[in-house]
Design brief:
Layout: E1 4-7, H1 11-22, E2 31-34, H2 39-48, E3 51-52, H3 56-62, E4 65-68, H4 75-79, E5 91-94, H5 101-107, E6 113-118, E7 128-134, H6 139-149, E8 153-157, H7 162-191, H8 196-216, H9 222-228, H10 235-245, H11 248-267
Parallel strand pairs: 1-2, 1-4, 2-3, 4-5, 5-6, 7-8
Antiparallel strand pairs: 6-7
Helix pairs in contact: 7-8, 7-11
Bound molecules: NADP nicotinamide-adenine-dinucleotide phosphate (NAP).
Length: 270
């Protein structure tokens, strides 16, 4: 059985750990976790039964697959001091936004098997979209990533570069953008006399209904689905005309590009 070491017990590491355990795909006794501060790690250990590593060195010693769950800006400080403790048997999975496999290799030269993933917060409900790039062409490494992360959602293998950046923004940050839209829906309903609870329920129901219909009819394009709910000169058509006139797509594209620029900044390790 493989052993997994999570360096950093923050939001994303905890969501992955809890979902892997809930889905019964990894047993807690095969998971080791280290963290800079003690409190949250102790709570995680108590709640899930995973092992606590005394420090990052012990984590590397105990586990074969090491998942780097620190913020990109903390990556060098966390990994540089322990880089020589890695050896050729380790597989390293980085969650750090923007940090390329090439930069990871420079940071941990002893490791040849590197995987870079970009999950989103829906890991918590095991409905994440997870971007994944692996070093080299190794098929077994892709299979390992597929087997490990499949219980958490949909895995999309993608080359690094613009496509990876686009996935990061549209799918990982995308959750935040969708919530922004949901807030507009909710606020508008509240302006029209619905309580916040009713407005929330109606908003979530509308987004979920639209997403589920699209999910359940994978052969129907989004445009076709939209056409089915729009009648000529009807209410939806009037609203859509205005959305297009006000260039909502242009606005979103500009915002996505701004997010890509930040992703690039965060990924610089110098
Ligand atoms: N959250 C998301 O939705 C999301 C989505 C996609 C990707 N990611 C990626 O996931 C990674 C983690 O993000 P997050 O949101 O989970 O951040 P987070 O909640 O801040 O977690 C980072 C954790 O790393 C720990 N840490 C920092 N330096 C350390 C060190 N030297 N040794 C051991 N532990 C250390 C921190 O410990 P302390 O308790 O001391 O702060 C903290 O618990 C990032 O690279 C991010 O790009 C996150």
């Amino acid at each position: 059985m493989r052993t997994y070491g999570f360096l950093g017990a923050g939001h994303m590491s905890q969501a992955i750990i809890r979902s892997l355990i809930e889905s019964a795909s990894v047993k807690p006794e095969h998971i080791w976790v280290s963290n800079r501060s003690a409190g949250k790690l102790d709570r995680l250990v108590e709640q899930t039964g995973v092992h606590k590593a005394a420090n990052n060195e012990e984590l590397i010693d105990k586990a074969e697959v090491i998942l780097l769950g620190v913020k990109p800006q903390d990556l060098v400080t966390a990994v540089e001091p322990i880089a020589s403790s890695f050896d050729g048997s380790h597989i390293v999975v980085s969650l750090a936004a923007g940090v390329s496999l090439q930069n990871l290799k420079k940071l941990i030269p002893n490791v040849n098997q590197l995987i870079r993933i970009m999950p989103n917060a829906a890991v918590k409900v095991r409905r994440s979209v997870i971007g994944c790039s692996v070093s080299g062409e190794a098929l077994w490494l892709k299979t390992l990533a597929q087997d490990l992360f499949k219980p958490l959602g949909e895995i999309v293998f993608v080359e690094e570069g613009e496509a990876f950046e686009a996935l990061t923004v549209a799918c990982s940050s995308g959750i935040g953008f969708v919530y922004e839209l949901m807030e507009y829906w909710q606020d508008w309903l509240m302006d029209h006399d619905f309580s916040s609870e009713e407005a929330r329920r109606m908003t979530v129901g509308t987004f979920m209904g639209a997403a589920l219909m699209a999910h359940e009819t994978p052969l129907t394009t989004i445009e076709e689905l939209q056409n089915k709910v729009v009648s000529k000169k009807g209410v939806t058509a009037a609203g859509l005309d205005s959305i297009r006139e006000l260039e909502m797509e242009r606005l979103l594209r500009i915002s996505f590009e701004k997010a890509v620029m930040r992703d690039r900044e965060l990924g610089r390790l110098d």
